[in-house]
Amino acid sequence: MENLHDKRKVYEKSQLIESEIKQNPIEQFRDWFLDASASPAVSEANAMAVSTVEEDGCPRTRMVLLKEYTYEGFIFYTNYSSRKGKAIENNHKACLSFFWPNLERQIIIKADLEKIAENLSDGYFHSRPKGSQLGAAVSPQSQVIPNKEFLEEKLKELEEQYQNSEVPRPANWGGYIAKPYEIEFWQGRPNRLHDRIIYQLEDLDWKISRLAP
């Protein structure tokens, strides 16, 4: 067993103060996301953890790529029949989390999820490389399969079938928009006195508060 008591880091790269933040959390997210995207130390700024609650009441978290964000919310794509899709169908709330350790920053988003319009899912699906389109059509995501060859054989069949034609978007594949009602921005600080600013939606306005670290 390894003792991890002494594994700690001093956070001192930046600070988060009320006089400098945006009044709208999406604008604050945009500023931080652009910083992360421009940093050579961050390989995938749009990688986020998505946590949903399954039927047994236990949260389940997985990494997903953010594909778009607007003032309305955050958009990602998945298989609607997957474990996350089924969890979202039963409980429309989810938590999104971004962590950029090299910037000593974290964002936690509580949101209500909705499917986006089918034409928007169509547009994104057909903008993907053909290999990714075929992969989405082949995989019965989250289901038990007999072996790896099962998928490889199905992929070969679809490659031949759609060699000279467009791959149709599977009906059970598409996008969700996560409409936030709470967004917390965390900035690491020395002595563990981290900055935590939380935006909470009240009616149509965002209330801004500071949380103790």
TrEMBL record:
Involved pathway(s): Cofactor metabolism; pyridoxal 5'-phosphate salvage; pyridoxal 5'-phosphate from pyridoxamine 5'-phosphate: step 1/1; Cofactor metabolism; pyridoxal 5'-phosphate salvage; pyridoxal 5'-phosphate from pyridoxine 5'-phosphate: step 1/1
Assigned keywords, A-Z: Flavoprotein, FMN, Oxidoreductase, Pyridoxine biosynthesis
Domain Pyridoxine 5'-phosphate oxidase dimerisation C-terminal, residue spans: 173-213
EC class (word): oxidoreductase
Catalytic activity: pyridoxine 5'-phosphate + O2 = pyridoxal 5'-phosphate + H2O2; pyridoxamine 5'-phosphate + O2 + H2O = pyridoxal 5'-phosphate + H2O2 + NH4(+)
Amino acids binding FMN: 62-67, 77-78, 83-84, 106, 141-142, 186, 196
Residue intervals of the Pyridoxamine 5'-phosphate oxidase N-terminal domain: 41-160
Tree of life domain: Bacteria
EC numbers: 1.4.3.5
Sequence positions that bind substrate: 8-11, 67, 124, 128, 132, 192-194
UniProt-listed Pfam families: PNP_phzG_C, PNPOx_N
GO molecular function: FMN binding; pyridoxamine phosphate oxidase activity
The record's free-text note on cofactor binding: Binds 1 FMN per subunit.
GO term, biological process aspect, one: pyridoxine biosynthetic process
Cofactor(s) for this UniProt protein: FMN
Entries under InterPro entries matching the protein: Pyridox_Oxase, Pyridox_Oxase_CS, Pyridox_Oxase_N, Pyridoxamine_oxidase_dimer_C, Split_barrel_FMN-bd
Subunit structure as annotated in this protein's UniProt entry: Homodimer.
Primary role: Catalyzes the oxidation of either pyridoxine 5'-phosphate (PNP) or pyridoxamine 5'-phosphate (PMP) into pyridoxal 5'-phosphate (PLP).
HAMAP family noted in UniProt: PdxH
Similarity comment: family membership: Belongs to the pyridoxamine 5'-phosphate oxidase family.
Descriptive protein name: Pyridoxine/pyridoxamine 5'-phosphate oxidase
Annotated source species: Chryseobacterium antibioticum
Taxonomic classification: Bacteria, Pseudomonadati, Bacteroidota, Flavobacteriia, Flavobacteriales
